[in-house]
Amino acid sequence: MARRNYTVAEVESLIPSLEETFTRILQLRVGLRALEKKLERAGASVEWEPVPSTARGKEARSTKAAPPPPPPSSDTDVSPEAAETSQVVHARALFRGYYEALSEGLEEIRAMGGDVKDLDLGLVDFPGRRGSDDILLCWRLGEKRIEYWHTVEGGFANRRRLDERIPRTPSRAD
Predict the structure, then answer these.
(1) Assuming Cys at both sites, which of 27, 28, 126, 164 could form a disulfide with 6, CB separation 3.0 to 4.6 Å?
(2) Would you state the pLDDT for residue 170?
(3) Angstrom distance (rounded) from CA 106 to CA 122
């Protein structure tokens, strides 16, 4: 599949959507971490699974707990263990829902053409060109414009300011 390259203007037009989506993702991460602590306090183990992205800071976890105790003999005979199990079941369901919503947010960014590189920093790269070289246009949550790029191998630590060799707008041939 051919690589789609973006211009600075194309990525900048996506920034409002990126900000909205990334803000939602970060809020979901806060919820996931709170639920993780709640599940661990209740004795349910929480194991992280990779986020369906190249993003660092793997934030997806599965929850596993011992099988619930047998149900009480009547509705009025609810043991503390059974009530706790109900809380664990509820927390697990919320956790799965938050995880699915976070995954959908990451997929929205991928559908825009971005590649989430770091959830903690809010980093997203978009493929672009600098002359005849493949590069990545680099956006960080909070930046209102695209001002940086780096080589495909370089990463965030090697960000450089945009220069005249990076197209700002699509060419007539595009």
Answers:
(1) 126
(2) 78
(3) 11
